[in-house]
Every structure is written in C-alpha cells, then in structure tokens.
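User: Tyr recombinase domain-containing protein. Structure?
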Amino acid sequence: MVQCTGNLACLSSNFIGSLFSTGLSPSTISSHVSTIGYIYKVLDLQDPTQSFLTKKNLKGCHSVLKSPDSRLPITLDILRKPITALNHVIPHAVNRSLLNAFFLIAVNGFFRIGELAVKTKADNVIARPDIHFDYDKQQMKGVVLVLRHYKTNVEHSPITIYVPVNSSPVNCPVRALHEYFTVFKHSTGPLFQFMDGKPVSYSYVTEQLRKTISFIGLDPKQYTGYSFRIGAATHAASIGLAENVIQNLGRWNSKTMRRYTRLQCLSI
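Assistant: Predicted structure:
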C-alpha cells in the first residue's frame, strides 16, 4: 500500500489497496472508485480517480484478479451435437442450412465469428465473390476462401484459406457450404445472408448457437462463439500439428494461440 499524506491521488490508491485486501472483485473496486470520482465532479473539484497512479492501481487489480477463461472448445467431434440440434431448435429449413454451413466453416477455417457475421459493417466480413470451389476432373476437392479483413491483418493483405472436403457425408464443411449455395443464390455481398438479402448478424449466430448448446444439455456460458476457434486450435493440437502450423492456420501473430489449445477439455 502506498504510504503518503496530503496527496489525493495517493489517498485514492490507498483506498483501492484497502478494497483489494478485502477480496472484492475488480469490477466492484472500480464501481467504488467511480462513485468517488462522481462526487468530485459534482463538487467541481479535481478528480483524483483520474490520476495516473489511480488508473495503474485499478489496472493492477484487474490483472491480478483476472477471472480464468472458462470457455470450452467446440471441436470437430463435439460439433456433431449442435449440428444435429439444429433440426430441433431452428424451425426453417433454409436457416438450418445456413447455420450448418456457418458452424462447420467456422471451425474448419479457424474463423472468428466477426469474420463471417456482421457486427457493424458488412464490408468487414468475408464476401460471396471471394469463395471458390476447387474441382479436379469434376470432383469437388475443397473450397477456397479469401479473407480480406481480419484482426491481425496489419499490412491490409488478403489471406487465402483452403478447406478440403472430408469423408463425412454429414459434417463436411465444403459440402455444407455447397448445399447452402444451392439454396442461397446470391453472388454479391457478404457470404452469409438471409433469403431477403440481409446479412447474417453476429447476434443472430450467437443466439442460435446458445439455443443449440442449451438443447444438448451444455452450458451456453461455456460454449460461445469463441468456442469455434478454441475448438479448431484444440483439434489441431490433438492430431499433432506443430505450434507454428496452428499459429498460421489461426492467423495468430504470436504464441497467443497457446491459450486456445485446451486438450484437457476434449471430452464432454
């Protein structure tokens, strides 16, 4: 604890230290500090809670008491269950086709949900013209997806993602995407759209995922949109892919991918 008198910033830091020692959560400590700051603003006085020292102390509380990430992976094996649940929780067949393709492509392509479903701007998601199927003598071998906007794209260069056909007649991402295109015949705009041409939103996907996860008896707080990416990294590690390969597949610029590989969570 900082020992000083006559300095409001130091007193504020002492207050934070006192709250921290009682075991309060970082959010509760921040709420108490915000209340003090509000009083100073009302009285038109200099706010000590906005000082460099106070902000650093609050940041330290959040770092030390950071809650562990409880999100679990949706691996390729686990994915079969929410895919099956679509038949029970999604009433319209066209939307089942959409979500089936979305879920399978998300895991197999290491996609962030925001790269496939619109949060704010439709221009930031993968586009329909950037999708091409790969054929060899009229036999479909895979799908090529060109991703132009992604989190670590500091050089603003597109990246090509190749997803091959797999042997599963039900859980093949390439066949699922091809089936989606037989129903949704748009040639422009975002890859994933509704029948009326509106882009599929981030909130829609996460809500439907929550429904399918709940239906199969799992905790939707533990299986979220991030679970697709966690599942992709975990599956890749489970089959023995090297870290640098997983890092490239997931478009990570650092060893951050280690936080996504959770081999201890493979069974549900």
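The chain is about 45% helix and 10% strand. The CA atoms of residues 192 and 243 lie 31 Å apart.
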